[in-house]
């Protein structure tokens, strides 16, 4: 995807070095927008092979949709170890036990402010009135991120702030805001997951998916990722793949399995190990 490579090059060229809350320095830029039309194919990057990550990518989204905030649920129900390292950090730093992460994505999605199932509510809104401008899901509840004394409630605050589903010209579109965007590791994952979610919502509403638009508030590349990202820029992207979604057991969005999501015609450059900042 040339859009992704343009973002990488922009941040490396125009971004500024800054200290972060992590030990590693990063190059950051302020507020960039990237758009993908799903009619042109599925936005999974092809400049490095992500086919091995596909099941994990799908599993994490289904886990969040379930409302779980426990890393062991992701492991036991979907076979993914993805959040175990952050569960360990949450235990060491904040005292959470047995894989619990605190009020992160799943909690905010299905139990916002302790009372609102945003997934059910937004789907219902779109079904009852596709003209609505209020089909917004928010992951950001400041009181569930930091205490009044500025100590952390969660070790990993939601990087995705909010999502806005809009029906326009007979298609379902999705825009979302990402406050912190690790371009090397997180962004390809996040982009594909939200493209999947756009497709899932569109399937539920019997509409074709349209555009995915992303506002990156602070897109950044960590200093130790720079060599890999420069190598990535030398690679010419292949055509975008396709994704199909099978019906879930109930025929609804709520009980999909990982195997329901199939990646087709995916051609990519060799895989690349890019380190993650913890």
From TrEMBL:
One of its GO terms (cellular component) is cytosol. It is an enzyme of class 2 (transferase). Gene3D superfamilies: Thymidylate synthase/dCMP hydroxymethylase domain. One of its GO terms (molecular function) is thymidylate synthase activity. GO terms for biological process: dTMP biosynthetic process; methylation. Residues 3-277 form the Thymidylate synthase/dCMP hydroxymethylase domain. Its EC number is 2.1.1.45. Keywords: Methyltransferase, Transferase. Pfam families: Thymidylat_synt (PF00303). InterPro entries: Thymidate_synth/dCMP_Mease, Thymidate_synth/dCMP_Mease_dom, Thymidate_synth/dCMP_Mease_sf, Thymidylate_synthase. NCBIfam families: thym_sym. This is Thymidylate synthase. It comes from Candidatus Amesbacteria bacterium GW2011_GWC1_47_15.
């Amino acid at each position: 995807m040339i859009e992704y490579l343009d973002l990488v090059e922009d941040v490396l060229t125009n971004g500024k070095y800054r200290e972060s809350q992590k030990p590693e320095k990063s190059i950051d830029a302020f507020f960039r927008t990237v758009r993908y039309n799903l009619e042109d194919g599925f936005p999974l990057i092809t400049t490095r092979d992500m086919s091995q990550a596909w099941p994990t990518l799908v599993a994490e989204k289904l886990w969040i949709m379930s409302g779980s905030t426990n890393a062991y649920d992701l492991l036991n129900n979907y076979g993914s170890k993805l959040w175990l390292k952050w569960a360990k950090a949450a235990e060491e730093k904040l005292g959470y036990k047995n894989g619990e992460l605190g009020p992160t994505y799943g909690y905010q999605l299905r139990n916002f402010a302790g009372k609102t199932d945003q997934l059910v509510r937004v789907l219902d809104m779109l079904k009852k009135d596709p003209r609505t401008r209020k089909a917004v899901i928010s992951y950001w509840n400041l009181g569930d991120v930091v205490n009044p004394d500025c100590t952390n409630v969660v070790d990993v605050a939601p990087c995705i702030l909010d999502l806005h589903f809009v029906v326009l010209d007979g298609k379902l579109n999705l825009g979302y805001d990402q406050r912190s965007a690790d371009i090397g590791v997180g962004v390809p994952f996040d982009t594909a997951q939200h493209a999947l979610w756009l497709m899932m919502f569109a399937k539920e509403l019997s509409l074709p998916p349209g555009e995915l638009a992303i506002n990156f508030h602070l897109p950044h590349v960590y200093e130790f990722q720079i060599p890999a990202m420069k190598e990535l820029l030398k690679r010419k992207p292949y055509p975008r793949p396709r994704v199909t979604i099978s019906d879930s057991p109930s025929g609804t969005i709520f009980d999909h399995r990982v195997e329901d999501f199939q990646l087709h015609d995916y051609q990519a450059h060799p895989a690349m190990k890019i380190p993650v900042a913890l």
